[in-house]
Specification:
Length: 182
C-alpha cells in the first residue's frame, strides 16, 4: 500500500535528507524509482494481473498511518569482531492498528495461493508493518541516519491506495483507488 501524496512527499524528503548526508537511502538505492510503501505480501514472484483481479481494491478504505518509531532489520553478519561488517536496513515502524492488520490478513489470504516463494516474515502474525528508509547501512551509518529520522517523527497520514510492485520500480495500481489526501 502507498501513502497519500502529502505523506509520500514527507517520506521522500526524509530519504533525500539521508542521501544529502552522504548515506545510502531509498532515494539512491538501485534504480532510484522506489516509492514509499508498506508491503503486505512479498514473494519471489506474484502474478500481476491475477493479483490485481483478486485483491481489488487495496485498501478497501483509507487506513490511518502513524509512524512514531524507527527500527533496524539486520541483513548481514560477519565473523569480524569489530562489527563493522554488520549491516542493516533502517525502517519507519508503522503503528499496527486493527485496520492495517485486517487489510494485511485479507490481502495475504487472497494472494498467498498465487505467490511463488512467499517470504515467511510477511505471514500474518509475524509481519512487521514498515516503510523502508535506508538499505545496507553500517553501524556508524545507521546511527547517523537514525538521528535524521528521529528529528522527523512522528509522521501521520493515510495509506489510501495500493497495488502490486516489483523490484524494478514498476507498479500496477489496484482497481477503484480510494485516494483521500486528508
Amino acid at each position: 500500500m502507498w501513502p497519500d501524496s502529502s505523506t509520500d512527499r514527507l517520506i521522500r524528503a526524509l530519504w533525500e535528507e539521508i542521501a544529502r548526508q552522504g548515506l545510502p537511502s531509498m532515494a539512491t538505492h538501485t534504480h532510484r524509482l522506489h516509492q514509499p510503501h508498506v508491503s503486505l505480501v512479498v514473494a519471489e514472484h506474484i502474478p500481476v494481473r491475477a493479483s490485481l483481479q483478486t485483491i481489488r481494491p487495496v485498501p478497501r478504505e483509507p487506513i490511518k498511518l502513524l509512524i512514531e518509531a524507527a527500527g533496524i532489520f539486520p541483513i548481514e553478519e560477519s565473523s569480524a569482531s569489530n562489527g563493522e561488517d554488520r549491516h542493516g536496513r533502517l525502517f519507519l515502524a508503522c503503528v499496527a492498528n486493527s485496520a492495517l492488520l485486517d487489510e494485511q490478513r485479507r490481502v495475504h489470504a487472497v494472494i498467498r495461493p498465487l505467490a511463488l516463494g512467499p517470504w515467511s516474515h510477511f505471514e500474518p502474525g509475524t509481519w512487521t508493518p514498515h516503510l523502508t528508509t535506508a538499505w545496507t547501512l553500517s553501524p556508524r551509518q545507521l546511527a547517523s541516519a537514525l538521528a535524521i529520522v528521529m528529528d522527523k517523527l512522528p509522521i501521520e497520514g493515510w495509506l489510501d491506495h495500493g497495488g502490486v510492485e516489483d523490484g524494478s520500480g514498476e507498479r500496477w495500481r489496484s482497481a477503484a483507488g480510494v485516494a483521500c489526501d486528508l
